[in-house]
């Protein structure tokens, strides 16, 4: 979903919620595989988890930066600072996803990756809250 529909707080916020719920489920399954010593399965789940972050949250972020954020700055230049902060959140999430992918080149899946997945969730939660309250509040 892109364009004007991202301006509707209800529709936009349900995109956030759906992605985050799936991310939480995948993180839980990944952690359970590690706890049960199922390394091969953990790796498969992690690959799905990375794909989830890339195709859902990071794709959504890209669409916002190319559309919604630019439109809002044009109409409300006073929101530039907020848009810069929100874009930084996107960058942090991209960096963490890349970090997980880099680790997989040399390491087996481990609990440190659960910590990174938790960080993604925390940043995303705060980010979504700010997007709703600071960017889209008051019908902007
Ligand atoms: Fe965003
Ligand atoms: Fe968003």
Q: What is the radius of gyration?
A: 16 Å
Mean pLDDT, all residues: 95
- Tell me the fraction of residues in β-strands, as a range: under 5%
Q: Count every beta strand, where a strand is a DSSP E run of 2 or more residues.
A: 0
Bound molecules: fe (ii) ion
Helix content: over 70%
Largest sheet: none
Low-confidence stretches: none
Cα separation of the termini: 18 Å
- SS summary, helix count: 4
Shape, principal axes of CA atoms: elongated
Pattern of helices and strands: HHHH
Give the oligomeric state. single chain
Characterise the protein shown here.
With 140 residues, this protein is an all-alpha fold. The protein has one domain (4-139). The protein is built from four helices and no strands. The chain has helices spanning 9-35, 39-75, 80-106, 111-135. α1 (9-35) runs antiparallel to α2, α2 runs antiparallel to α3 (80-106) and α3 packs antiparallel against α4 (111-135). The longest helix has 37 residues, at 39-75. It is elongated and about 55 Å long. The two termini are 18 Å apart. The structure holds fe (ii) ion (2 copies). One fe (ii) ion (FE2) binds next to α2, α3 and α4.
